[in-house]
Structure formats: C-alpha cells, structure tokens
Design brief:
heterotrimer, A mainly alpha (281), B alpha+beta (341), C mainly alpha (311), B: 341 residues, alpha+beta, 6-stranded mixed sheet, 5-stranded antiparallel sheet, C: 311 residues, mainly alpha, 0% strand, flat
Chain lengths: 281, 341, 311
C-alpha cells in the first residue's frame, strides 16, 4: 500500500505527459487502419466514439498509399538524398572534427564553438539567398539542390559532435601508432576511426534523420512532385482538395516511427552535442 | 644500436619552460633514467626525442643524424607509454604485429617475429586475447613485445611500471633490467620513482624545472649530489641540511648515529640531538628532532635495527657524523662546494 | 642504415603531411569552406538582397536602398507577423520550461518502464514536424471541424453544447492556440531531455555533501541544484527560442498564415513574399528581422561557453 501511495502520483503525472506526447501518434495509427465510414463520421454523434474501432480494421489505406500515391517515389528520393548527405557529411566532418580535437591547439576550441554557432543560423534567414544560388547553379527542382544544401545543417553539428568524440579517445593510442611507424593519416585510419565507430554511426543517423525531417528548404527548392522527399511530398502533394486522411496518416505513421526509433538509439550522444560544454562540470 | 644526443634542447609551452636548455648524451646500449618530480620536464624531453613534440630550440641526434624534422616513424625508436597504449580493438597478436605491418613485411615473417617477441616475454599463450582480457603485468609485456618486435635502435619507456601494483613492481623491475641487458638496446627511461631509477639506471639524469641538475651513476647521485635539489630529492628520508654561516651542511639520516657506536679514533663531528618523536618502521627507527643551538631546522636520523640503544621522545642525545659523510653546499646557489672545517 | 641516411635529405617533402601546422588547417578547410560558401556568403547575400528589388526568375537586380524596409514598415501585416513570432515563441517557451522542469524531475528517478516512457515522450521531437503537424490538423479537425475529435470530446464531457463548434483554423484565437499547442508539444521533449541531462550531471557527492551539511530540500534546490543547472537551462532556452522563432513549418501546414493572414510569423511571411510571391528583396528584408534575435542568442551561447571554460 505504501509502495502504491508513493508511486501512484508519479505514475499518474508521467502518464499524463505520455498521453499528451503520444496522442497524435495513437491517432495516426488508428486512422491508418480504420475504414472510411468509420473515419468520416460527423462529430455531433455522441454514440460514435472516435477513439475506438467502430467497424473492423482494414489495410486498404496502406495499399492505397503504396499503390495509388507517389509515396514510393518520395521514399526513394529521401533515401537517395539521405545517403549522399551522409557521405558528404562524413567526408567533411571527420577530418574537421579530428583537426579541432587534436591539431589546432588552443584556438581549436574557439573555432569549434564558432562552427557550432553556425548551426544556429536558421533556414529562414537563408532560404531566399539560397534559392537564388540554387537557381544560379541550375539546380532548381533537382534532388541535387538538397544534396548540396542539407550539409549546411549537418556539418556544423556533426563537426562539433565528432570533436568531442575524438577528444575522448586517449591520445596515447594515436601517438603509439605514430611511433609504430605510421603517418598521422595512417594513425587516424588504423586506430582513431575504428575506435570512434559509435561516433561515426551517430553522425550517420543524425544526418539521415535530418533529411527525413527537413521541410523548409525542400519546399523552397522543389516543385515537381516526382522530386519531392517524404517530409515535403506528404503534406504538399498528398493533400488535395479532398483530404484523404486514411492514406495520409498511413504515410505519416510509416515515415515517423522509423525515424523516431533510429534517433532514440543515439539520443544520448545528440544531447551531449547540444549541451556541449555546459554539462562537462 | 645508437647514440642519442640532445644539444641545448628547449621546449616552451607559452610562458612555461617545460624543457629549458638540456644537453645530454646517451651511450650506445646504455640504460639512462630521467628522474624528476612531476612537471620537471622529463616526459617532455622524452617526447621530443620520440618526435611527438617539436622542440622550440636545440637539436636532437639519433645515430649521429639530426632528427628534428623527422616524424616519429622515421626515427627508428620504440616507445612504451605509461598507459601501455595497447590498441583496444586489436588482439595481443595484432598489437605486436602492428609496427611490422607498417613496414610492409610478409605475413610469414610477421608471424615469426611476433612469436619470437612473445616467447621472449613469456606471453606466447596470450596472443589471441584482447587488451581488456589481460592483467596489468600482461599488458605491460605485450607493450614491451610490441616495442622490441621491429628491433629499434632506441627504446623510450615512460613510467612503464607505475600502473603495476607494488608487489609486482619488484619482479617487473628485475625482469626489465635483465631483458635490456640481453638485447642491449640504448634505453631512456622516465620515472619519478627514485628506487626504480637507482635500481635500473646505468646512469641517472636528475631533472628539475626543465634543467638537468646532475647526471651520474646511482652511486654518484646518492653519495656525491651536485646540489641541494639532488641531495634532497634522492634518498628517503631526504638528506638533512643545516645552515652554518655561508654554507649548508648536509648529511644523510643513516650517517647520523649515536656517538657511542663509533670507534674512538674516527674523525667525527658531534651534535646534541633533541629527539621529538620516534617512528618504528620495522627494519629501521626514524628519529625526528632538531640540533641544539641557533639553528632549529628539522633533522631526521635513521637507525638500523642493529643499533639497539634505547631512545626516548623529548630527550637529547649525543649524535655524530663521520667527517667524510658531511657535504657542503653554497647557501646562495645550492651548488656543492669544497669541504672546509 | 644506408637507407635511413638516404631518406634524410628528402625528409622535408616526404613528411610534409606529418606537420601538425600544415595538416590541421588542411583537414578543417573543407568544413570551413562549406560553411563560408553556403552559410556565410548566403547570409551576406540575404542582407544585400534586402536592399535590392530582386525578383525570382530574373538575375538582374537594382539597388533600391531602404525602399524594401519602408514598404515592410508601412505594412500592418509585417507588424502582425512580428507580434505573432514574439507571442508564439514567448508563450510556448514559458509553458515548455515549466512543464519540462516538472517532467524532468519526475523522470529523474529510475523506475520500471523508464526507457519506454522516455522513448514515448520523445516521439514529438524526433518525428518529422511537417508530418506530425498533419496529424494534429486531423486531430483538431482544422480542415473540417465536423470531423474534429477534440470537438467530439469536448462535447462528450459537456464543455461544448450540441450546436457549438470550434473552427480551429477559421478564427484567429483558436488558430493561434493550436499553433502554440503544437510548438509546446514538439519542444517539450527536447527541453525535458536537456534539463534531465543537466540534473543528472550534478554530482551526487555535491548533493550528499549538502545533506551532510544539514541543507533541506528547498535549500539544496535553490542554492545548489538551480545555480548548477543554470547553464543547461540556458541551453534549453536558447535552442528553444531559435527553433520556435524561426519555424515556419507549423504555420505553413496548419494555417498557411490564415485566417486572413492573422497567424503569419516572420518566417512564413518572408516565404510568402520572397518565394511564393517572388519578391526576393522584400522577403529578404522581412527575414533580416530575425537576425538580431540570432545575434542575441549567439552572444549568450558564447558567454555560456566562456563561463564553463573558466570553471
């Protein structure tokens, strides 16, 4: 009893927060599998409880999403852009993070903070000049515009993240590799990179989920439905005059949950990145 | 096999003078110990010899070549770090083979040499373990095996015994010394532990504040310290120093004994010693107190078990030192001066 | 030995990449290049464009001085957007901070099921906002109030009468409330997790020492926990401000700035004018007003970084 009394308020409180957080997800799930008649029942009918299945569940909306909408194209575009952005991010941030952690000495720290600050420059300030730039380069309405621009988010954050990661690897081990007959680059490839695999994975996940989430640049650069990514195509091209809520929510569900799971796996490292020096205590 | 020489070597980190003008020659096959308190610059000096640190000024010669501009891999050196710096993602075998791979040797040759080194250090049965599955002593051997496997001309060892527990250290010290004698490679060994330094070194270079204060055999640095720093740094408890006019007079606690145990014809200087406290350490007795007279600086005497004269706290006794055991230092500079009576 | 002797004269070139002075800048230059070319220059270009009459589709643009700013400042819509940006950001950040503090304290102790709870709580932050805003649209019945679950629920508990409707995006107040609700929903997990990281980073020994010294809970909270948490709270607030104040996704998808342009924020208005309407110069001029905010945040971040360096 005493156990119950001390834990119950806490659980009740947490339950309220969880309910608030999860509600839209519950809603998209139930919508995905409800029949249309069940969905579009006018809200004045008090006997029709919208939180439950009033008719048997169906897979029709999922089928419609995959076979009757350009969702598959969006998915393909997203994966393509995602992979390229991940590749660019790794190629640029691994050397940069290493350089800041090891080679640039005292002003490395300041430069690192400077680079991280550029992460704070929002797309809102940049989409107009970048739209100009993208059209100058002839990249309007191509996936390449996104491949070129998305690293502006990922590079500052991931450089900072990797800098912290490389700093946590004992210096001795690299120096030992230098003594053992390797050049600096050889030491990085043979010892630092294998030891920072978790850090590299974090960068991959961060970059990929960012491509999944980004909306403003995609909205600015892309007009053709065939070139849209999921986060742009679903709200822009799947919504027509008549909202087809079933397939729409199916798309939202299918796209959100994998991103959420991936992101959650590496959450602690992202948080370490955001809080940076403030918690090193 | 090589001679290592440094000339007027300096390393400044901003305003801090980590190494401040060091001249040093390590003979071929010699075991030289760099001894000093932390912050004395001994590790920085070694890291410059290794090529991990660029000197601010001065020259480094290995095997008669200036190596200042060469990266570590071109210096034909091997180094064992305090942490052993084993590659955590590689097995013991792969750790030892790593320097050989850098040289691009054939696989059979690599295996042969790794097995040779492993056998030499008695770790042949551990080769497929990873570092975290090894004990401290085993890790140290893997690190040593990795260092010798490509037959370097110079060995650099940075406090390699400090991570072992006290019991293991004696055995490891003995083994290390025998091992170095066997392979006969020029060795530079950094430590802050004077017992290690005395036990291992053919010669010891004692450093403080970026400078070498004295280079000599263990006997020399103990019995003929060049200055008051060396005198008080080497030996536990440290040498007693008492001020007399322009001089400091020094004598070791173990040469400061009750007057009655000396022979009558010996040349002695005697003092009245007021004993404040007695410590029984099993093999010795330590007496803390001061000399009667104008100077009240603390003095320690160390009596071996063989001296069984009863001593009581709070009383004064006649103690004496042989004239030959007195060392004289300038009060101003701290340097040794000629004896003067 | 012979080989070693031969190597030495060539050392200078052969070992060029071993020099830290050279290698350091070399390795970091691609990142700096990217940032300068695609963040730094565009930022300058944005400022330049705001002084021109550039329109999309045409490369030539004339310098028009402060004309864009005069146009904007004469436009009540701009002030509406400025006010909305301020209202959305401040109200949602205030609610987020209070709720996040409560939630972080609740999640501090470990209890059965905590990892799952953490995962669920985080969903709003990690799922793509452009997609989850759609599902809020559907929950609220923003596009069609007769299908609104919220309305059904309010009716079921008797708050709304049988003939009452909340038309979420057809009237200004409910539309603004909806936007704030979504911002709170989205930022709460982020702030909670950051505060939680701050709470757990306070060494238990410091708290124990305070207990031993006889400090009660409130004393510990105000004299130890709060001061130690301050930098981390600042991080949560600064990021929160940046993310909320510059966001246009929620507004764009939920209301497109409506009804009657009453819910526009600076970001969505800039997009409307600059990209949709093609008036690049005017759009840039509107977006520029976010710049001071950015500077202020950057200033505080730097101070924070410096302070933690010293301690």
């Amino acid at each position: 009893m005493r156990w119950l009394r001390s834990w119950l308020p806490l659980y009740a409180l947490i339950f309220l927060f969880v309910a608030f957080a999860v509600f839209p997800f519950y809603w998209m799930t139930i919508t995905t599998f409800k029949q249309d008649e069940d969905l579009f029942h006018v809200a004045t009918d008090p006997k029709h409880n919208p939180y439950l299945f009033n008719l048997p569940p169906t897979l029709n909306h999922l089928k419609q999403l995959i076979f009757e909408t350009p969702y598959a194209t969006f998915l393909r575009n997203t994966i393509l852009v995602g992979l390229l952005v991940v590749a660019i991010t790794l190629l640029v941030t691994v050397p940069a993070g290493y350089s800041l952690a090891r080679l640039t000495g005292q002003w490395g720290e300041k430069l690192g903070i400077g680079i991280f600050l550029t992460y704070l420059v929002p797309p809102t300030l940049l989409f107009i000049p970048l739209a100009r730039l993208v059209s100058l380069l002839g990249l309007s309405d191509t996936l390449w515009s996104l491949v070129l621009i998305y690293p502006t988010f990922t590079i500052p954050f991931c450089t900072w993240l990797l800098m912290g990661f490389f700093k946590s690897i004992p210096k001795d081990i690299e120096e030992q590799a230098l003594i053992d007959g390797y050049s600096r680059l050889g030491a990085i490839l043979k010892t630092v990179l294998p030891l920072s695999l978790p850090g590299l994975l974090t960068v991959v996940i961060f970059s990929f989920t960012l491509v999944m989430q980004e909306f403003v640049y995609a909205l600015t650069f892309i007009n053709a439905v065939g070139k849209m990514t999921i986060s742009l195509g679903v709200p822009i091209a799947l919504v027509h005059d008549v909202y087809r809520w079933g397939p729409l929510m199916a798309a939202v569900l299918l796209s959100s949950i994998p991103v959420a799971i991936l992101y959650n796996l590496f959450l602690d490292r992202f948080i370490a990145g955001f809080t940076g020096g403030a918690v090193k205590g | 096999m090589a001679i290592v020489e440094v000339r007027d070597l300096k390393k400044y980190f901003g305003k801090v003078r980590a190494v401040d003008g060091v001249d040093l020659t390590v003979q071929d096959g010699e075991f030289l110990v760099l001894l000093g308190p932390s912050g004395s610059g001994k590790t920085t000096l070694m890291r410059m010899i290794a090529g991990l640190e660029q000197p601010t000024a001065g020259q480094i010669f290995i095997d008669r070549h200036v190596v200042n501009d060469l990266p570590p891999r071109a210096r034909k050196i091997a180094m064992v770090f305090q942490s052993y710096a084993l590659y955590p993602h590689k097995t013991a075998f792969a750790n030892i083979a790593f320097p050989l791979k850098a040289q691009g040797l054939r696989w059979e040759e690599i295996r042969e040499r790794v097995e040779w080194a492993a056998k030499l250090l008695g770790i042949a049965h551990l080769l497929d373990r990873r570092p975290r599955e090894l004990s401290g002593g085993e890790r140290q051997r893997v690190a040593l095996a990795r260092a010798i496997v490509r037959e370097p001309s110079v060995f650099l060892l940075d406090e390699p015994l400090s991570n072992l527990d006290a019991k293991l250290r004696h055995a490891a010290r003995d083994e290390l010394k025998r091992f170095q004698r066997n392979i006969g490679t020029t060795t530079i060994y950094v430590t802050h532990d004077q017992i290690e330094a005395m036990g291992l070194g053919d010669r010891i270079a004692i450093m403080n504040e970026g400078k070498v204060r004295q280079i000599g055999t263990p006997y020399e640095v103990y019995h003929e310290p060049a200055d008051t720093f060396v005198a008080t740094f080497v030996g536990t408890p440290p040498m007693n120093l008492i001020a007399r006019a322009e001089r400091l007079i020094g004598f070791r606690p173990e040469s400061f004994l009750p007057k009655e145990i000396y022979n009558a014809h010996e040349d002695l200087v005697s003092f009245s010693f007021h004993v404040r406290r007695v410590e029984h350490l099993g093999s010795d007795r330590l007496l803390y107190g001061q000399l009667a007279g104008k100077d009240d600086s603390p003095v320690i005497a160390k009596l071996p078990l063989t001296v069984s004269i009863p001593i009581q706290e709070g009383r004064s006794y006649e103690f004496a030192v042989r004239c030959g055991d007195l060392k004289f230092f300038s009060r101003e500079s701290g340097w040794r001066t000629e004896p003067e009576f | 030995m012979v080989e070693a002797a031969r190597e030495i004269p060539r050392a200078r070139y052969r070992y060029l990449l071993d020099r830290e002075r050279l290698l350091g800048p070399l390795l970091i230059s691609p990142a700096i290049g990217y940032i300068v070319l695609l963040i730094g220059l565009p930022l300058l270009l944005a400022i330049y464009l705001s002084f021109t009459n550039a329109i999309s589709g045409q490369l030539s643009a004339q310098f028009v001085g402060l004309k864009n700013f005069q146009t904007i400042l004469a436009d009540p819509l701009f002030f509406q957007a400025l006010k909305n940006t301020f209202i959305f950001t401040s109200i949602s950040m205030l609610i987020v901070l209070i709720l996040a503090k409560i939630l972080a304290l609740a999640l501090l102790k470990s209890f059965p099921g905590r990892p799952i709870v953490r995962f669920l709580i985080l969903l709003p932050w990690v799922a793509p906002i452009s997609l989850t805003t759609l599902s809020w649209d559907w929950v609220l019945g923003a596009s069609n109030a007769t299908l609104s679950t919220v309305n059904w629920t309010l009716r079921a508990v008797g708050i709304l009468g049988p003939q009452d409707w909340i038309w979420w995006t057809s009237y200004t107040t409910p539309a603004m409330a909806a936007i704030i609700l979504i911002h709170v929903w989205r930022m709460l997990p982020f702030a909670t997790i950051i505060l939680l990281a701050g709470l757990t980073s306070i060494p238990q020994e410091i708290q124990d020492a305070a207990v031993v010294d006889g400090a009660g809970f409130w004393r510990r909270f105000f004299e130890i926990i709060l001061p130690l948490m301050l930098p981390i709270v600042a991080v949560a607030v600064l990021f929160g401000i940046i993310f909320t104040a510059t966001d246009m996704t929620v507004v764009y998808i939920l209301t497109r700035g409506g009804p009657y342009n009453s819910t526009h924020v600076l970001a969505s208005l800039a997009w409307q004018r600059g990209i949709f309407g093609g008036q690049l110069g005017q759009g840039a001029a509107i977006a520029i007003f976010l710049f001071p905010l950015l500077l202020i945040v950057a200033f505080f971040m730097l101070r924070l970084a410096r302070r933690t360096e010293v301690t």
